[in-house]
Design brief:
single chain, alpha+beta, Serine Threonine Protein Phosphatase 5, Tetratricopeptide repeat, Porin, 2 domains, 12-stranded antiparallel barrel, 13 helices
């Protein structure tokens, strides 16, 4: 459909993103539009066709060009809307080396529209993506480019910080085979670092360069650079004292400077709702329909996610409890202390009348490590925490068993991947072990696939294993749930 419409508009068969960009620029002008059609009509048709492009890099690039043309004819609000669509598409590009240039280009578009805050926010996203690129040449080239982008927005301190740290990284890479070049790069890095106006950031960068000098066998130069950093602090204190102003806090420059850096790609509030059919290992179950919801919000250093599932387990032959309610809720807050580590607090609650669990609730603070991350949908995390767990169980309201475990160890492994570019795969394994009653341990494994069949719809499949060391009311230790459903994203 998109190919046909582009052909009707005079655009040739779509190829690369650069082809698309030149095509959009050449044809999105009034002179190339049929006289019977207004520019707005032309752009509307172009937008419809662009949204059907399968390649995400190409789609985002063309949407950006269309937004630019809307701005040229005075349709600024519409341009911002289309640019938001381009950004949403860019956020789904899985390969960091492809995603980062698109994000930087979108930041430039936002700046051209006078949206300085949005431009800065998108650049922060791009910087986070670039830092995940493993191939050094590509990463260095993109870091140099984004430094220029920051400078064009008036963020000279950030530009100098990025450029200085990039030169330091290049120097460390070159040191084993080309020490002269490494020293030259470190000298350039220190010169650029002196341009940083923010004192804590400047001291932090100079300290990193001094460490790099030491690592390359130039301890004397490293010491000289540290002396410069100390002199900067002393000079700042002297000026502050003369002007009766408080001295800038620099007691922990590295920590403070790191706190200014984004570790995640900001994600606006979004969610999913789904409807599913379930098949369980219990032979008495004849009908089990479930409803699920998931919400997510992510900032440059924080992430909040909540999930809720409810289901009705109906069996007309089961008396007197032919309807049994199942519900589970979990939420997690993460705060990233570095790009690859975070603290978290996790809250879980479960009600499963079918398995005689009236309420099982737990609260776990802990620490997590990101062992590998390529994109939002491609990562491997390891988490460990200590918390408390409460359980009230039994076959009847009058026949209950209450357990409270004040020291429970929780370990979890979460793996996410993309199969065939679009199919999202998630594997989570979790183990909870009370220290005071080891036999009360429980294990859970969830394997899930999400297969898109539209812009916002997907088919979901999941297999869930749950194993209780001491299940209530002589219910089976192992429970297996097969789940198939549809999901809508918003």
């Amino acid at each position: 459909m998109a190919t046909l419409l582009f052909a009707a508009l005079g655009w040739p068969t779509l190829a690369t993103a650069e082809d698309l960009k030149s095509i959009a620029q050449a044809h999105s002008t009034p002179s190339s539009v049929d006289t019977n059609r207004s520019m707005l009509e032309f752009l509307s048709e172009s937008l419809e066709a662009a949204n059907q492009i399968e390649d995400r890099v190409a789609r985002s690039t063309v949407l950006s060009e269309i937004a630019s043309q809307y701005a040229k004819i005075g349709q600024t609000e519409r341009a911002i809307q289309v640019l938001s669509q381009a950004l949403e598409t860019a956020n789904t590009i899985p390969e960091p080396s492809e995603q980062a240039p698109v994000l930087m280009a979108l930041a430039t578009r936002y700046a051209e529209l006078g949206q300085a805050d949005s431009a800065t926010r998108v650049l922060e996203q791009a910087l986070t993506v670039i830092n995940r690129i493993e191939e050094m040449t590509t990463r260095v080239n993109l870091l140099s480019t984004i430094a220029l982008k920051y400078a064009s927005l008036g963020r000279s301190d950030t530009a100098a910080e990025i450029l200085s740290r990039t030169l330091t990284e290049v120097a460390l890479q070159a040191a084993p085979t080309d020490p002269d070049r490494a020293n030259q790069n470190l000298a350039q890095a220190s010169e650029v670092a002196q341009l940083i106006g923010n004192l804590p950031t400047r001291v932090s960068v100079l300290s990193e360069i001094a460490t790099a000098y030491t690592q390359t066998g130039q301890a004397d130069l490293g010491a000289q650079l540290l002396d410069q950093a100390i002199a900067s602090i002393d000079a700042s204190g002297a000026v502050a004292a003369a002007e009766n102003k408080p001295t800038a806090p620099v007691t922990q420059p590295v920590t403070q400077a790191a706190a200014q850096r984004p570790f995640l790609e900001p994600i606006p509030l979004r969610g999913r709702v789904g409807l599913s059919g379930n098949l369980n290992t219990e032979a008495t179950t004849t009908s089990l329909i479930g409803l699920s919801a998931n919400v997510l919000r992510q900032w440059s250093r924080e992430r909040v996610e909540a999930r809720f599932n409810v289901a009705n387990d109906f069996d007309s032959n089961r008396r007197p409890y032919n309807e049994q309610f199942l519900g589970d809720f979990s939420s997690q807050y993460r705060y990233y202390v570095s790009q690859y580590s975070y603290t978290y607090v996790r809250l879980e609650a479960l009600r499963d009348i079918r398995n005689s669990i009236k309420l099982r609730a737990s609260l776990f603070p802990g620490f997590g490590w990101n062992l590998w991350r390529r994109s939002e949908f491609q990562s491997l995390d390891l988490e460990g925490g200590f918390g408390v767990q409460y359980e009230n169980s039994g076959p009847k309201l009058s026949d209950t068993r209450t357990r409270f475990n004040p020291t429970v160890l929780q370990v979890a492994v979460i793996y996410r991947s993309l199969l065939f570019e679009d199919v999202r795969f998630t594997q989570r394994f979790e183990a909870n072990t009370p220290f005071n009653q080891f036999e009360d341990y429980n294990l859970a494994s969830t394997t899930a696939f999400s297969i898109p069949f539209g812009e916002q719809w997907s088919l979901t499949n999941a297999v869930i294993f749950k194993f209780d060391g001491t299940p209530p009311n002589n219910t089976p230790n192992l429970n297996v749930n097969f789940r198939v459903g549809v999901e809508y994203s918003f």
